[in-house]
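Tutorial handout. Part one gives the primary structure; part two gives the three-dimensional structure as tokens.
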Amino acid sequence: MSASNNHSNQLISNRRKFLQTAVAGLAAPYVLQSNGLIIGKAQAATLPAVAEKDAVIAFGHSGPISDGGWTWKHHLGLEALKKTYPAAKYIEVESVPTSADATRTFRQFVSQRANLVFVSSYYGEFLSSVSDAAPKVAFFENYGRHLTSNMSGYWVEHWVPSYVIGVTAGLLTKSNKLGYVGSMPIPAIYESVNAFHLGARSVNPKVQTQVININSWFDPQAAAQAGSALIQGGADYLFGFMDEAAYLNVAQKAGVWASMWNADMRTSGPDSYVSAVIVDWREFYLDQMRKLLTGEWTGSQDFLLKPGVGVDRDAWGAKVPSEVSKQADDVRAKLLNGTLNPWKGEMLDAKGKVRIKAGESLQPFGWNWALEGVSGFPDA
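Part two.
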């Protein structure tokens, strides 16, 4: 094995370690309960207004902008800032490793006099050690939990469109076997899988969902191999949380359905494409910039981009039957207007234990256990 491969494997190992301990190592104000995370807030502080010409905005990404998915969508947010606030200075670093090198990158942002730092993935102590030492710099960490007066977390209510997409899976499957290509067994993936599974079971109680985690957010070869293995195991509908379209290519060749994440990827599998969880961070980034410039920026905020605004399902694929898309859209409307709450119990975990009692509800953010009928996680 080459030195570069050893280095890559070590970075993956580091990333997995910190993401898997994201829940176990929660800092107050988060409290872990059996039904998810209860989100609290530390004491907030307002930073002084900054003139646009003096503003320095930094972005740190876990992947390459060219991924066409997660990092690219955050990059579009940066481009929106440049267009709206052209006098500010912008710094962008791609593929920041989850290691001590990340800390050096974030320290460099501070030394470059950044006023506002957006980190589009979770880095834990690699970032918090820097933010704690720079109280006059505003930080945002995607899926972050270390809320302080100058550090905020932001995420997206992706479980709503995931549930809607699950409805299509339950209606379209013939084998009653669904496949999911994920990164690693962390809350973000549990949130996605469980919501998808719930949506499918709402219209087809017989479905089973098999998960294969590939220990990476961006590994087209591994994602394609996982998709192939799931199809060989009988899955005729694939879903996942990847930054690119590799498993959609596999679905297209195999003649099975697939839904994606981040962006419209139908050109990679036009006959198989059902939809995607589409995220749009632009308004969020613009709003934070406006608050910084007007002196309204307040730390210790926890943001969940809302369904129908910052996150939604993509337009339906060309081959999706109209009766399927209509039924899924009826469910979407009920989720958005609050007349449907699929997060109510009774809910059993993959081992048959009651996790949510009848009449009780969970908050999907921070979900860290697999539902009954889901396999492939360590606890399933």
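Part three, for discussion. Residues 1-42 have pLDDT under 50 and may be disordered. The two ends are 33 Å apart (CA to CA).
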